[in-house]
Amino acid sequence: MNFASDNTVGASAPVLQAIVEANAGAMAAYGNDEITRRVRARFAEIFERDVDVFFATTGTAANALALSSAVPPYGLCICHREAHVIDDECGAPEFFMHGAKLTGLPGVGAKLKADDVAAYVKSLPRAVKQMPPKALSISQVSEGGLVYDLDELAALGAVCREHGLAFHMDGARFANALVALGCTPAEMTWKRGVDILSFGATKNGGLMAEAIVVFRTDLAEALDYRSKRAGQIISKARLIAAQFEGYFADDHWLANARHANRMAKALSEGLARLPGVRLAWPTQANEVFPIIPHALDRALKAAGILYNPWTELSLPEGEHVGEGEVLVRLVASWATREEDVHRLLEIASSGVSRHAAE
Amino acid sequence: MNFASDNTVGASAPVLQAIVEANAGAMAAYGNDEITRRVRARFAEIFERDVDVFFATTGTAANALALSSAVPPYGLCICHREAHVIDDECGAPEFFMHGAKLTGLPGVGAKLKADDVAAYVKSLPRAVKQMPPKALSISQVSEGGLVYDLDELAALGAVCREHGLAFHMDGARFANALVALGCTPAEMTWKRGVDILSFGATKNGGLMAEAIVVFRTDLAEALDYRSKRAGQIISKARLIAAQFEGYFADDHWLANARHANRMAKALSEGLARLPGVRLAWPTQANEVFPIIPHALDRALKAAGILYNPWTELSLPEGEHVGEGEVLVRLVASWATREEDVHRLLEIASSGVSRHAAE
Amino acid sequence: MNFASDNTVGASAPVLQAIVEANAGAMAAYGNDEITRRVRARFAEIFERDVDVFFATTGTAANALALSSAVPPYGLCICHREAHVIDDECGAPEFFMHGAKLTGLPGVGAKLKADDVAAYVKSLPRAVKQMPPKALSISQVSEGGLVYDLDELAALGAVCREHGLAFHMDGARFANALVALGCTPAEMTWKRGVDILSFGATKNGGLMAEAIVVFRTDLAEALDYRSKRAGQIISKARLIAAQFEGYFADDHWLANARHANRMAKALSEGLARLPGVRLAWPTQANEVFPIIPHALDRALKAAGILYNPWTELSLPEGEHVGEGEVLVRLVASWATREEDVHRLLEIASSGVSRHAAE
Amino acid sequence: MNFASDNTVGASAPVLQAIVEANAGAMAAYGNDEITRRVRARFAEIFERDVDVFFATTGTAANALALSSAVPPYGLCICHREAHVIDDECGAPEFFMHGAKLTGLPGVGAKLKADDVAAYVKSLPRAVKQMPPKALSISQVSEGGLVYDLDELAALGAVCREHGLAFHMDGARFANALVALGCTPAEMTWKRGVDILSFGATKNGGLMAEAIVVFRTDLAEALDYRSKRAGQIISKARLIAAQFEGYFADDHWLANARHANRMAKALSEGLARLPGVRLAWPTQANEVFPIIPHALDRALKAAGILYNPWTELSLPEGEHVGEGEVLVRLVASWATREEDVHRLLEIASSGVSRHAAE
C-alpha cells in the first residue's frame, strides 16, 4: 500500500491508450502536428479564452520555465518557504531564472496570506542592493495539501497587480484543487489574477504530461525559445499532447481527482477518529497530514504501508508535535483503492488499541 | 513518404510494448525502481565496463547536460561549425554550461580532423582573455551523415588527452554508426578516448529515450544534481528506462539501425546512378546528401516526398552546388519501407528523364 | 558628522600618495607589472605562506568571485541570514555562482554558531532534490559588528572540514577584526581553516582596493578567468595594487583599524552610560549598535548626525526594541575624528536630559 | 618606447588631479553624491539630450553590462568576428547575458558592412532551434583601427531598426573616432541609431573610467540592478565620476584624442614610405597596422620598441602577408611623445636600409 506520493503509479488507462494510438504513423516533429494543435485548442476551451500553451515532461521544468518568463535574472520571486519550487527542485528555478532569487515566507499548511505577501513587499528596501520583487508563486494545492479558496486567490491576485508581480500558480495538483472548490478552471486562475500556470497532469493520470498555460501574452513571448533551450521540446511531441487528449476526454481528469480527494477524505476522517491522532490542518484535497503516536507509526510501517514524515515548519501557532508523536503525510491518488484505505484504517485502529493496551 | 527526419514516426513496437508493460503497478519514483536499475546494468554489459548512466527526454538535454559536466562556465568547447550542439539547440549547451562558449571548426561533411583540432588549440593565445579549451564534442554519425572510423576516433581521443579536453560524443545516431563500422560500443567510445556519450534511442525506435553514458567518474559526480535542476528527472522514470529495455532486447536496436542504413544505401545508390545527380560526400549511415537538379527536386516534391535542403558549408574543396542544382538531405529510419525507397527512385528516374526530354 | 558607514570618505593620505606615484610612466597592463608582483609577495609575507591573490574593485565582486570558485552552480552556500552576501549585493553571489543558492541561518549579532551550522547541514535531506552544501561564508567582522574569536573560527573550520564545505571569510572589515583580536592574519584565517578570504581595504583607507586571498590552491585555479570574465581585471591594474602598497606600508592599515575601533569604543561607552540607552550586543570592532529612545534619535538627527536604523532580526533571545525605541548602527572609521565622537556624545547627553525634563 | 597599447600609462594629469580633489571629505556612497550627479548632467550636455549613465571600472564590464540589457539569455548578438567582445573578454558578454550567443561576421579591418549584417539576419532560419538575433555590437574605432563614417553608421542603424536589433557601440576609443570624423557625439551615436554606448575614457587619459550611456530608456531600466549585481557599483563612486569631470574639462579628452591620432598618422606615413612596408588598411585613428619585413620587425624589437603582431583574418581580399613579412599593430596614445615616433621611424628607416644592404 503506497501512500507515499501520487507519482508512483504509471499512466491511467485512457492516457496510456491515447499514447498507443498517437504512436502510429508519421507526423511532423517538435509540436507541429495535428494532435498538439487540437490539445492547444482544448486548453483554450477549458480556460474559456485564448491561452498560450507549452509542454514539458516534468513539473520541475514547467515551474522553472514559467518562472523564468516572469522573473529577470536580478529579480525576486516570493513563495511559501516550503514551496516545491524553493525546496524540492534542486534549484531548477534559480538555474532557469539565471540566478534570480526565491524568497520563502511562512504560513500555516504551506499557504500564503495576501496580507503577509503585501507586508513583505512593502518591507523591502527601495535600493539597488535589494533584488526587486517580480513574481509571486503559489502552489494550488499547497505543499501542505490545502486549497486556496477563490477569495484568497483574488486577494493574492490584487497584491500582485498592486505591486507589479507576475502571479504564478504551481498546479501540480490542479485538478484536485479544482474539484475541491467545485469551480471552473477560469475561475481558479486568470479570473483571480493568475498570469501563468504550471498545469500538471502527471500526478493525476498522466505519464509525463505537464503544460505551461499562459494568460498574459508578454510572458509567452519567449517561452518557445526557453523551452527549446532547456531541452524540453521533445521531437515526438505528439506523444505528450496525446496524453492530455486522453486526460481531458470524458472529464477523465476530473473523475480521477474526485476519486483521489474522496479517498483522502475517508483516510482523514478515519484517522482523525482514532484516539491520540489529530490533523495538523484540515484535509482539503488528496493529501492528509495527521500527527500520530509513534506506536501507530510503527504499526503502519510494520504493515508495509508507505508514506513520509513531514516537517513541522508550517504548523498553526500553538500547535506542536509532541515527544511521542510524528507528523506524517499520506497521499491518495486516482489509483488508490478504497479497500486499501479501509485496510490502512483497520491496521491503524488496531495499532492504536494495542498501544492503549500496552 | 517522409524522408525529412528520423523522428517523425513514433516508437517501434517492442519499445511501445515495454512502455505498456512497465506502466502497470506502483514503483518508486525518480529512478529508484527496478527497471531503471536493470537498464543501468544492461548499459554496463553493452559497454563492457562500469558506466554511469543518466536519462533524458531529449537529445538536446542529453548533449547540454553532458557538456555542462565537462566544461566550466569560463571554458571553451570545440565542435564542428555545423554541429547540432552549436546550430540546432537554441543555445541549450550555452545555457547549461552557464555561458561557456562553443567554437565551430570547418570540415567536410561536418566531420572534424584531429589535426585541425590540435592546430586550433595550439593557435589559441595563452592569456586570461582567452576562454581555455575544455572539451571536444563530435557527432557520431556527423551532421553530414558521415561516420568517424576507429582510427579517426583514436586520433581525436589522443588530441583530447594531450590538451586536457574532455571528449564528448553526440550519439543521436549511435546505433547507425555502430552497425556501419561493425564494431562494439566499447570500441567506438571509451576504447578510443571518449569520456562522455549522448546515447540516443529516440531516432532509432524510442519514444523519448536518451541516455548520458559516462566513462570518466569525475564527469558523473554532479550529473544527478544537474539533471534534477534541469527538470530532466521525470517522476515516473521507469517509463524512460523501460524504453531502453525494449530497445536492447533481442538486439532490436541493431536491427533497426541496420535497416535504416540499408534503406539509405539503396536510396543513395539509386540516386547516384541518375544523370545529373551526384553525392556531396559518401553515404555511410542512414542519411543521403545528393546534389540534384532543380527539375528532380520539383518532381520529388510534386510527388509529396518530404525532405530538406541542406547547407553547402561543408562541401569538399572544389565541389560546389551549381546554378540549377540543390543540395538536399534524405533520411532513412527503422520505419522506412523498402517500397517507399523504390517508389522514390522511380519518381526520381522519371523526373530526370522528363527533364532531359524538356 | 557621518557615522553612516565607513565608505563615505575617500582614500587615506598614504594610499592616495601611492596611487599618485604609481600613476607615472608606462607599465604592462592587466596586472603583469612590478607593483602587482610586489604586492602579491607582500600578501604572502603577511599571511606567512604562499597565497594566490586576485584583485577586485568592490567587496561585492570579491565576495561573489570567491564564492563562485567554491560553490558549483547546483550547490548551496550557508551564511548568516543577515550576511552582506545574501542581503546587500543584489544577488551578485547568485549571479557569479550561476544560480547556486545562499541559505541564511539565524544567530545573535549576525554571528553563526558552529553547532548551528553543523546541525543545519545534518538536517538536509540526502536527496537529489536538495542542493548539496558546498561552502560556508562568514563575515569577520560580522554584519552586527561582532568579532569571531579564534576558538569560534576553529570550530567553524572544523565543521567545514567535516562536511566538505569550503570556508569563506568576508573580510570587508578584516583589519578591524584583526586588531580587535590582537592576533596575526594567519591565525585568523588559514590556521583556523579558512580557505578563501575577501580581504577588504576600501573601508579602512583604500580607494577601491579589494583582494581575494586564496589558501587552497584548487580554489585559485580558475579565478583569473572568472575575474576577467566578470570585468574585474582593470587594465591599469597597478593602480589597485599600489593602494595595497600604501595600505600595508608602516602598518598603516593596522593603525587605521585601531583608530576606528577606539573611536567606536568611546562612542559605545559614552552612549551606554546614558539613561534609556543600551547596547543590542557588545561593541567589538568599529560599529556600535545601541537601542536608543526616539527622543535621542530625534536629537541626533536634528544635529545633522548621519547613521542608519538597523533590523531587530538578530537580537539576543528575550531582548527586543520597545515602543519608544529604535535600534541603530553607528560606524566609526579611520577618518572619524575624536572631537566628533565627543560632540555626538554631548548632543546625545543633552538630548536625553531634555527628554527627561519634558 | 611602448606602442603595445593605449592602456600602459596611468591617468593624465587633469584626471589624476580630479581624483585627488574629489578624495577629500565625506560624501554619500554608491553614486548618490554631487560629483556623480554633475557628471551625469555633463553627459546629457555632451550628447545633447537626456541620457541614462552608468559607470564601470573596465571596458569589459561596460560592454558586458550594455549587452546584457539588450540581449535576453536566448538571444543572439551579432558582431565582427574579431570584435573585442567576442575575442578578448574571456566570455564576459556570455556570462553577463546568461549564455546568449555572440556570432562573428567577417569584414576588412574588423569593420562590418550593413549589407552583410542584413544578409546574415535574413539567412537565419525562422525556427525555435535558432537563437533570435537581438543586438548588433560594433566597435568605433574598430579592432582594426578603422572608423565607421556617419553614413556607414546610419546604414547599420537602419538595419537594426528594420530587424529589431538593439544597436550597441563599443566606444573604448570613442574620442579617437570622434575627432577623426570631426562630428559631435550626438551625430556619431543616437542620431545614427545607436541605442547604447560603452563610453571609454581609460585608454584616453582615465585611470579606470568607463561609462555606459543609454539612449533608449527601456534598456536603462534594470542597469542599476545589473551593475550592482556585477560588483560594478563601487562604494566611493565619486572617484569614478571625478575622472570624467577631469576628462571633459576644457575639452581635455578631445585634445588627448587628437594628439594620439596625430601621432598615429605620423607613424603611419613614416612607415608607409619605407620600402617593403605597406599598410594592411588605412590609418584612421590612433592605431597603425603595417605589414613589415621580418628584418624591420627584428630591428624594432632589438631597439626595445614594444608592439604586437596581429591576425591576418581581416585583410582585404587579395591581400596577404608574405613569407618574410609580418602584420603588426602599433598604438599611439595621449601620452605618446613626438620624439618617440621620430625615434621609431629612424630606427625603422635604418633597419630597412640595413636589410637592403644585406
UniProtKB/TrEMBL annotation, chains A, B, C, D:
Cofactor: pyridoxal 5'-phosphate
Catalyses which reaction(s): L-allo-threonine = acetaldehyde + glycine; L-threonine = acetaldehyde + glycine
Coiled-coil stretches noted in the UniProt entry, renumbered to this chain: none
Matches recorded under Pfam families: Beta_elim_lyase (PF01212)
Alphabetical UniProt keywords: Lyase, Pyridoxal phosphate
Enzyme class, spelled out: lyase
EC number: 4.1.2.48
Domain of life: Bacteria
Domain spans labelled Aromatic amino acid beta-eliminating lyase/threonine aldolase: 3-287
InterPro entries for this protein: ArAA_b-elim_lyase/Thr_aldolase, Low_specificity_L-TA_bact, PyrdxlP-dep_Trfase, PyrdxlP-dep_Trfase_major, PyrdxlP-dep_Trfase_small
Lyase is among the record's keywords: yes
Lyase found in the keyword field: yes
Function recorded in the entry: Catalyzes the cleavage of L-allo-threonine and L-threonine to glycine and acetaldehyde.
Family the UniProt entry places it in: Belongs to the threonine aldolase family.
PANTHER family with a match to the protein in the record: L-THREONINE ALDOLASE-RELATED (PTHR48097), LOW SPECIFICITY L-THREONINE ALDOLASE (PTHR48097:SF5)
Subunit structure as annotated in this protein's UniProt entry: Homotetramer.
Protein's name according to its UniProt entry: L-threonine aldolase
